[in-house]
Amino acid sequence: MTKLIIILLSAVFINNYVLTRFLGICPFLGVSKKLDSATGMSLAVIFVMLLATAATYPIQFFLLTPNNLDYLQTIVFILVIAALVQLVEIVLKRYIPSLHKSLGVYLPLITTNCAVLGVTILNVQDYPVTETTTFWWGFAQSMVNSLGSGLGFFLAMVMFSGVRSAIEGSDIPKSFKGLPITLIAAAITSLSFLGFGGVIENLFA
Amino acid sequence: MTEILTAVIPVVIIGIICAVVLVVASKLMAVKEDERFPAVRDCLPGANCGACGFAGCDGYAKALCEDSSTPTNLCIPGADSTAHQLSDVLGVEFADVEEQVAFVHCNGNCDATTDKVLYQGIRSCAAAKLMYGGKGSCIYGCLGLGDCASVCPQEAIRVINGVAKVDPEECIGCGMCAAACPNKLITMVPAVAGVFVECSNRDKGAVTRKVCSNGCIGCKKCEKLCPNEAIKVVDNVARIDYSRCTGCGACAEGCTTHCITLK
Question: CATH 3.30.70.20: which residues of chain B?
Fold first, then answer.
């Protein structure tokens, strides 16, 4: 249990996908301008990350590894994730139109988000099924890691939209206006997350 | 050769499975969209002005498709041509659109009235109004900083000699300026209307006269002159009921301060 909590917290803070691993930068810079769209995007990302891991983890260890097809990992994962998100979109549109409307364009956008693919690939790398670990234990670890990564993405997006709204109202030199100041702000935000390194492991030691 | 096949076949199979699942799902769970919606939406001008009372053109198109009792003549910018198209697409009887144009009920230009303060703040009527009701000595009048002009999608409004003027030829009647004016000076009048009251000062005649030589003093002469009882003085300012007005111009001729004008 402690292991799962460590995985969750380190996924949120230490190995934050956006600020430490630099994955999913595109939505991080693109959708963080307003708080409500940042929240919508992050919720959709959490949802898709969990779903993608739930689908790809069994595929890896029941289909790819036993048949020595590990090299097909990337293409199969992308295929499965894309199809899955499309399916979810169809289902949502039919049964929960309000949620479909609020997720809007973000749901199909995340289909090919590198953070989502990154989570699934790192999950099978970091928590593999071996002689000592069962499938279900690895699967549980992967799901917790996906949840943590999604929450980390959410945290980064919400924090950064706050930073950006503060930048918006301030007097910026002309040459820094727009993207340059946003990138600098992102870099400083990312630096602040380095401070979490080593905290979580020592917390439970 | 077998290595290639062992790679290709699983991917193809997974792809086919995904495709089949998606096709089945999209057939089973297809959401019925009203096929008239795109056609109806194409009829509307797409200015999203909100003059129809719905949230943008999409909202009006949706209401038209879902509720057959929604009138087809609500789009004022589109006028008769849009109403014609809509009634064709929806198969209902054509209803004439009452074209409207915006009119600024103030003629307190720089010659008629004076400033009471030197305003050097933000160039916005809404901001200027917060400071003692605006820079001009008449607190009901046009602030002249062009909040109406900045929201106008047609650039039909210009501030001339301190007062906003609407070009009726350019105006599409969306009513965005009427919503933007902090003094509520702009109202939507029928495009065919001929007479206008160019004042909104609700103070008594003597007070009005002191701040602006073009103001309505509420003498009620126009009430008596009007043959159709279309004009009434309410709160010390004349108001025209355009459903009765014939545009004869008797009021404009007799107006003592020339605040009623004939176009």
Answer: 100-192, 193-263
* ipTM of the shown complex: 0.72
Name the residue in chain A with its Cα closest to that of B13. A76
Nearest to B116 by CA among B179, B210, B198, B35: B210
Q: B36-90 has which CATH code? A: 1.10.15
List residues of B whose CB lies inside 8 A of any A CB.
6-7, 10-11, 14-15, 18-19, 21-22, 25-26, 29-31
Nearest to A72 among B7, B19, B21 (CB): B7
For residue A97, CA distances in Å to A100, A102, A108, B80 come to 5, 9, 15, 35
Chain B residue numbers with beta carbons less than 8 Å from the beta carbon of A87 are: 21-22, 25
CATH architecture of B193-263: 2-Layer Sandwich (3.30)
To which H or E segment does residue B231 belong?
A: strand B231-234
**What is the model's pTM?**
0.57
Other Cβ atoms closer than 10 A to B228: 12
DSSP secondary-structure letter at A11?
A: I
Domain hosting A52: range is: 14-25+34-200
Is A74 within 8 Å of A121 (Cβ atoms)?
Answer: yes
Mark A143-170 as b/e (b = at least 16 C-beta within 10 Å). bbbbbbbbbbbbbbbebbbebbeeeeee
Among residues B124, B123, B119, the alpha carbon closest in space to that of B137 is found at: B119
Q: Coil, helix or strand for B220?
A: coil
Residues in chain A whose Cβ is within 8 Å of chain B: 63, 67, 69, 71-72, 75-76, 79-80, 82-83, 86-87, 90-91, 93-95, 97
pLDDT tens digits, one per residue of B72-107: 888 888 777 888 888 888 777 777 777 888 999 998
